[in-house]
């Protein structure tokens, strides 16, 4: 008698080898997809959204690419998830983590084909990952004590990160920008304080870091365009019509004259509010919400600069920069902390007028103005810069630094290989496979750069046989070079996160022997 | 389908819309049910034990869950078959009652069904089989008590508890740092346990997760974490010796339940209303300040104005805190939940030694830690991990470990794991079978065979020869008269589970056998399945 079906109609179930195959194929497909973007000579992808307007994104940021994909394969979803987490956690290495996890799975697939149990592979991978991490720990450089050296480390890291992005032409310029911006944060990882304004026009090289704060708004009509020693009130309050918030209140009148009276009262109310605000002794008022014509006029009369509709982030940042607090009621002016800055003026960037606050109290925040020829370029530049900023801010907290250019992978691979030789049993195969997966990364970097990867990687391995070698792939000259001399560095924290999450993800996928897909939820019929 | 006709040849309608229903009867029905039950058990079989595999489950919305927790797999599988649903229930009740062994119970039930099928083929009546199973389960449960051991632990000596939790965790993906997690679980349980009454309220343990970081960064916080931040970006991020007002009323003008209208028809009324409104906000904030609160936690949102007033009066506040969290905070800080501002008194404030905001990663992720509370009887386990699925799976594993620790505190009897208890029961049941006259004897023997299926699955999943290993262990148990021999899943080199420190709770094992027997009995008793046909 046939086995009753136990699932709902459209559900599917895949078992054992088939399930494993499905996850391997999915994961490896994802890896192959992002593989070509790895390294300084990696290529970009065009992503076209299915939404309205078919917006186009050009990027080589792994997390962005993967985020935009609509994937049905569960194993692929795991990889996308790790890339997203990598982005949230350290900001960079989003491609590497997926590639490493994919390579680990590719190696695992071979091992499974030779009838090694996935659990054995997992325990081998674990040992290898631990060993690799220790190998990295032994070789890290920590220049926390030496501020000058640390700065140059940061600079190198920023340049390495940026070199694989669209900004690589001006990487020195942008690296300097990023390092300056991060150093202003003084150890906080709150990247909110760094504002990035994108203005099309000019070239990327025209981008600059501004010490003050730039608000992408216009100054109200008839109000002063330049204020020195500004006292700023940052507010979040309704400046259109102040509604009565008591529930159920409504206006009912029986004649036109009454309407006029109420309107008058409303106006009076607004006038009072404006008076109160003015009573704070300010000469600049920034509100998150709209400011209607009437109050704006009142402000103009009082010679106060009123800026409306600054978005929430802008307000928070401005409050942070100027040291004022965000106010919503104005009854006791003495207790509200006002923000200060030396100079507010309208400036022009390209064709747009912006408001520039300079000489602010807290030096923490700053603004980076990006210029570029098109929106796509600017978007990509912002993503790249964001990556660099993330990495730098993490590095400021964890000052350990490694060399780049495939150097860490080779160091790890060497140690892991040694471990494999020492380990008896089937695990040894898995450990070996781990080292092969590590070597795959420099191989891909070389491949993407159009170099002879087989030749280069073997040369590299030979070079690493010597103790304390700094050799890595020099993509520019296409040979093995000294990474320390070339100034290619990476943050230890990023590498560690790549290693650990990739292993974790590979492990997770390897452990699966069955995929059960539920019937897709039916759309409700709206008939 | 059989129809009855009256004298005029019209059919009697017995079931409503009879011809649209499919119906299975008698032995056919039983076989179909057994087949369905077996199919479910087969899915879970490979997840058993430390070398068990995981399953990927894709939900109707396309979300992915990766787990090897039996209850979760079955829950998410969205089964359609009625019998399969019974097994899902079975696993769920094991989860509610014990929290662990959810896979084992289904595998056990599947094995019992498989054995029953053979007996049915011999022509034994299903009720006789069911009765035989019932007797056998009694024997097995008694035998479990016989081979169980008590062990002592106290708040100072938690090592045995940690060992047991480690056994539970070793079958999960988190086994990389099982020691660490087991310690956390045990400490959490000990912190909230009432050792006098031998009771643990697991609601007091909150399990929170956040992606990012390493599994090793998972920590136990003696206090509460809330996934919220201060309502105003400029409020202080750290408060020492906080006195907390816990409110369930919004900082907004009142919204009476009865329908009403405030009519404004003159300018004066408009003015008064405005003043009223202002005063209202002012009063609310002042009230909080007056009772001496230094932190306000509110279940609802704040109006912008109220928010600023709070900021202005230097009263940090947190908004939109969920009901469950609010209760936990109230318990932890010893405060009372206050539904109206008028009822706020100094005694109702909760106390905490330290409240701080902590941010994570590169995004704007913030969490609020409330630590050193007046009542340390509420703890939080904060999980970090590489990805979302990992966190979810860790949460489930921690839940299992917590349940195990709780069960041990309730009843400190243990049996040894690794299939040793099952094998020992199987031997005992087998021996007892001969004493029963009648057909039940066969059923009891079948039960003994079914018990063997758990160690068999363990061996299979560990890549050992199932039959050889099982028979070797079994003969060893009989020869040495030692019930501690089990399957050596981790390839340690010894079969003695006592040396490997693999043990499980007695009640967990007992419950497994009882629940599985019950469900199988229920399935065997069904002889007619009527279901509406597909339309």
Automatic annotation (TrEMBL), chain A:
Subcellular localization, as worded in the UniProt entry: Cytoplasm
This protein's UniProt keywords: ATP-binding, Chaperone, Cytoplasm, Nucleotide-binding
GO-annotated molecular function: ATP binding; ATP hydrolysis activity; ATP-dependent protein folding chaperone; unfolded protein binding
InterPro entries reported in the protein's UniProt record: Chap_CCT_beta, Chaperone_TCP-1, Chaperonin_TCP-1_CS, Cpn60/GroEL/TCP-1, GroEL-like_apical_dom_sf, GROEL-like_equatorial_sf, TCP-1-like_intermed_sf, TCP-1_chaperonin
Alphabetized SUPFAM superfamilies for the sequence: GroEL apical domain-like (SSF52029), GroEL equatorial domain-like (SSF48592), GroEL-intermediate domain like (SSF54849)
GO CC annotations on file: chaperonin-containing T-complex
Gene3D superfamilies named in the record: GroEL, GroEL-like equatorial domain, TCP-1-like chaperonin intermediate domain
Known function: Molecular chaperone; assists the folding of proteins upon ATP hydrolysis. Known to play a role, in vitro, in the folding of actin and tubulin.
Family of this protein: Belongs to the TCP-1 chaperonin family.
Protein name per Swiss-Prot or TrEMBL: CCT-beta
Organism expressing this protein natively: Hibiscus syriacus (Rose of Sharon)
From TrEMBL, chain B:
One CC-aspect GO term: chaperonin-containing T-complex
Keywords linked to the UniProt accession: Acetylation, ATP-binding, Chaperone, Cytoplasm, Cytoskeleton, Hydrolase, Isopeptide bond, Nucleotide-binding, Phosphoprotein, Ubl conjugation
Cell compartment(s), UniProt: Cytoplasm, Cytoskeleton, Microtubule organizing center, Centrosome
Keyword Amino-acid biosynthesis belongs to the record: no
Membrane-spanning intervals of the chain: none
Role: Molecular chaperone; assists the folding of proteins upon ATP hydrolysis. Known to play a role, in vitro, in the folding of actin and tubulin.
Protein name stated in the entry: T-complex protein 1 subunit epsilon
């Amino acid at each position: 008698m046939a086995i009753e079906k136990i699932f709902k109609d459209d559900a599917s179930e895949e078992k054992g080898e088939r399930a494993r195959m499905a996850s391997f194929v999915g994961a490896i497909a994802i890896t192959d997809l992002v593989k070509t973007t790895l390294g300084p000579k990696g290529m970009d992808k065009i992503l076209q959204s299915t939404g309205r307007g078919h917006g186009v994104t050009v990027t080589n940021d792994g997390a962005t690419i993967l985020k935009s994909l609509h994937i049905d394969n569960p194993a692929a979803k795991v990889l996308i998830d790790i890339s997203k987490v990598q982005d949230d956690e350290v900001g960079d290495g989003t491609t590497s983590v997926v590639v490493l996890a994919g390579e680990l799975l590719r190696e695992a697939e071979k091992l499974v084909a030779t009838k090694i149990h996935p659990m054995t592979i997992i325990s081998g991978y674990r040992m290898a990952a631990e060993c690799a991490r220790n190998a990295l720990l032994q070789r890290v450089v920590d220049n926390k004590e030496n501020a000058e050296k640390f700065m140059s480390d940061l600079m190198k890291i920023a340049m390495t990160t940026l070199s694989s992005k669209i900004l690589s032409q001006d990487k020195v310029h942008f690296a300097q920008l990023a390092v300056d911006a991060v150093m202003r944060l003084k150890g906080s990882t709150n990247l909110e304080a760094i504002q990035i304004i994108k203005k099309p026009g000019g070239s990327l090289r025209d981008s600059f870091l501004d010490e003050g704060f730039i608000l992408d708004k216009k100054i109200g009509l008839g109000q002063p365009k330049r204020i020195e020693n500004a006292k700023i009130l940052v507010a979040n309050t309704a400046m259109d019509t102040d509604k009565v918030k008591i529930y159920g209140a409504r206006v009912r009148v029986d004649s036109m004259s009454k309407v006029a009276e109420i309107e008058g009262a409303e106006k009076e109310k607004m006038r009072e509010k404006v008076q109160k605000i003015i009573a704070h002794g300010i000469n600049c008022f920034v509100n998150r919400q709209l400011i209607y014509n009437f109050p704006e006029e009142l402000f103009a009369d009082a010679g106060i600069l009123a800026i409306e509709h600054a978005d929430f982030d802008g307000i928070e940042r401005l409050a942070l920069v100027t040291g004022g607090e965000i106010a919503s009621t104005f009854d006791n002016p003495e207790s509200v902390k006002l923000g200060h800055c030396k100079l507010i003026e309208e400036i022009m960037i390209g064709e747009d007028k912006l408001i520039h606050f300079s000489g602010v109290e807290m030096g923490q925040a700053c603004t980076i103005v990006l210029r570029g020829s098109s929106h796509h370029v600017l978007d990509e530049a912002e993503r790249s810069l964001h990556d660099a900023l993330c990495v730098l801010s993490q590095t400021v907290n964890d000052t350990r630094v490694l060399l780049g250019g495939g150097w860490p992978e080779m160091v790890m691979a060497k140690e892991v290989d040694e471990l494999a030789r020492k380990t008896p049993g089937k695990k040894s195969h898995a450990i070996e496979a781990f080292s092969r997966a590590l070597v795959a990364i420099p191989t891909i970097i070389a491949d993407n750069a159009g170099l002879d990867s087989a030749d280069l990687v073997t040369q590299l391995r030979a070079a690493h046989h010597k103790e304390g070698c700094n050799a890595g792939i020099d993509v520019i000259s296409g040979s093995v070079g000294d990474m320390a001399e070339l100034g290619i560095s990476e943050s230890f924290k990023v590498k560690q996160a790549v290693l650990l999450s990739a292993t974790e993800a590979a492990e997770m996928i390897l452990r699966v022997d069955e995929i059960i897909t539920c019937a897709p939820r039916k759309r409700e019929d709206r008939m | 389908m059989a129809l009855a006709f009256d004298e005029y040849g019209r059919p009697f309608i017995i079931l409503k819309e009879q011809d649209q229903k499919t119906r299975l009867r008698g032995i056919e029905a039983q076989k179909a049910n057994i087949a369905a039950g077996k199919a479910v058990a087969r899915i879970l079989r490979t997840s058993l034990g430390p070398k068990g595999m995981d399953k990927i489950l894709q939900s109707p919305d396309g979300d992915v869950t990766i787990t090897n927790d039996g209850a979760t797999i079955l829950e998410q599988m969205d089964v359609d078959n009625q019998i399969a649903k019974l097994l899902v229930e079975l696993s769920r009740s094991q989860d509610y009652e014990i929290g662990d062994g959810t896979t084992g119970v289904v595998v056990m039930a599947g094995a019992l069904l498989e054995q029953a099928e053979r007996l049915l083929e011999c022509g034994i009546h299903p009720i006789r089989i069911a009765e035989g199973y019932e007797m056998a389960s009694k024997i097995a449960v008694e035998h479990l008590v016989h081979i169980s051991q008590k062990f002592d632990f106290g708040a100072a000596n938690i090592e045995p508890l940690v060992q047991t939790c480690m056994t539970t965790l070793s079958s999960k993906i988190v086994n990389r740092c099982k020691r660490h997690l087991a310690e956390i679980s045990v400490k959490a349980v000990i912190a909230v346990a009432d050792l006098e009454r031998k009771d643990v309220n697991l609601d007091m343990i909150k399990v929170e997760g956040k992606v990012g970081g390493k599994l090793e960064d998972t920590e136990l916080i003696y206090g509460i974490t809330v996934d919220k931040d201060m309502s105003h970006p400029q409020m202080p991020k750290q408060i020492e010796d906080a006195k907390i007002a816990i409110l369930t009323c919004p900082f907004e003008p009142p919204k009476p339940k009865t329908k009403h209208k405030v009519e404004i028809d003159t300018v004066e009324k408009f003015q008064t209303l405005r003043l009223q409104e202002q005063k209202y906000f002012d009063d609310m904030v002042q009230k909080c300040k007056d009772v001496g609160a230094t932190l306000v936690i509110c279940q609802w949102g704040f109006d912008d104005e109220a928010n600023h007033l709070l900021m202005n009066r230097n009263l940090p506040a947190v908004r939109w805190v969920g009901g469950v969290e609010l209760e936990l905070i109230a318990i932890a800080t010893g405060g009372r939940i206050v539904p109206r501002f008028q009822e706020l008194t100094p005694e109702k404030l909760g106390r905490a030694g330290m409240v701080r905001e902590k941010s994570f990663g590169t995004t704007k992720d913030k969490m609020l830690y409330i630590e050193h509370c007046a009542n340390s009887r509420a703890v939080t386990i904060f999980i970090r991990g590489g990805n979302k699925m990992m966190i979810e799976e860790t949460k489930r594993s921690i839940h299992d470990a917590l349940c195990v620790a709780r069960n041990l505190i309730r009843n400190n009897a243990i049996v040894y794991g690794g299939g040793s208890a099952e094998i020992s029961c199987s031997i005992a049941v087998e021996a007892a079978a001969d004493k029963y006259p009648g057909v039940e004897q066969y059923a009891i023997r079948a039960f003994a065979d079914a018990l063997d299926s758990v160690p068999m699955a363990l061996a299979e999943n560990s890549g050992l020869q199932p039959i050889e290993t099982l028979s070797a262990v079994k003969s060893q148990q009989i020869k040495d008269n030692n019930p501690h021999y089990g399957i050596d899943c981790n390839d340690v080199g010894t079969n003695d589970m006592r040396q490997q420190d693999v043990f499980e709770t007695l009640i967990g094992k007992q419950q497994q056998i009882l629940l599985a027997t019950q469900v199988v009995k229920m399935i065997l008793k069904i002889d007619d399945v009527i279901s509406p046909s597909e339309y």
